[in-house]
Amino acid sequence: MRWLAALVLLCASGVVAAQEFELRRHRNDCSLDPVELMFELSSAIETGDVNRLSALYDWNGMGDRAGRAVMDRLEAIAGRTLVDVVPVYPPDPLDAGLPPWEIPLFDRPPTGLRVEQVVPGSASAVSTTFSMHRRLGCWWVSL
What is the CA radius of gyration of the chain? Predict the structure, then answer.
């Protein structure tokens, strides 16, 4: 019985080490589906890595001044404590007059990701909504 407990602990520590390695490795590819993009976004914010967060952003067609402003916003987002990342779905045309539902009622991709965070040094909550779209086979966020 002791060897079984040791085996479980060994496997669990291997999984944790593999997850840590996965978070630290460099990505050469893009997010191929909305779930992967949501995971990458939350991981970048949890680690406070603005460069990793900026790699998920769609910079296509953006000028220098606008790019600097976006980078400043991304740096502020990366500097706050993450509470949750929630997918945002468009309102269902069949639910006319009802508020938008957070959980999809049928199979459709989300149109955005809402990032819930806490401002450092206070208990104030702040929410940022990224729009989400597919371009060139990859999923990207934008503000």
Answer: 18
